[in-house]
Amino acid sequence: MEETIQKFRSELESFKTSIQSVALLKFSLLDIVGVWFEETSKSRVRVAQNGTCIFGNGQKNTVSVDGSNIKLATGFVLFMEKSSRKRLVWEKGDQSLEWLYEMPGGSRQVTLNLDVEELLRGNFRYGEEVQYYNFNFSLIGCEVKVMFKQTKKDPNDLGAYFGLRKSTSRIGESTNNVDAITCWVQVDLWNPKDKTWLNLFRNNVARYEPGGTAWGDTSVITVARLKEILTTKTQYGYERIQSAQVRVTITDIGLLELSKQGEIRPTS
Questions:
Q1: In which domain of life is the source organism classified (predicted)?
Q2: What is the pTM of this model?
Q3: Maximum C-alpha span of the chain
């Protein structure tokens, strides 16, 4: 009996060892098709069925099948043992990339032209230690804002945030008020000189309430860098500040919480 138990344990250990070297999931090129977020570059990447990868920051790549491997044109190979349907890990030597899956069906995007001249001047009101610059707009039927924050302690450093505003927003022809929305948010700045999108911040899934917490990052860019990106010279040599092109992307839109004002009476 003891000999049988030992033999069973030995076979079990051999089985464990053998499956450690085998990926639990088999990937094909079709499994990579879709929209992902690359953590390293902080950019969204859309993969087409022919393997073409187009990044939100303007870069391009190609994914292809090479024997039993799936690889990028830049030499990164999909590490199948660490990857899943929601997360892809690419490795090349001691370098690695991480892609997180996004729900393209639950995404919205808008590009805004923001007048940032006042922000770049940084004129603080008397007695104020913090200056807020709110840029209000509508997205997916909600009234929202992108907010920049500047402090007297370090006026060259800018924080940026996204929030839901108090309003009487409606969804289409609905008379419902928006009470909260749960989603991911990413905000990018267009660099017209490099012709690329610069990521300012990306929030994890959060619940936004009207007038509630605005989520973001306390330090996304310096005033000097922003001025450098947006400043051009006229034909007479004068400096001119362009509008800031800011792209707001909402993904993985989850629960949209609504309420209706007033009493509902029965109808015949």
A1: Eukaryota
A2: 0.69
A3: 97
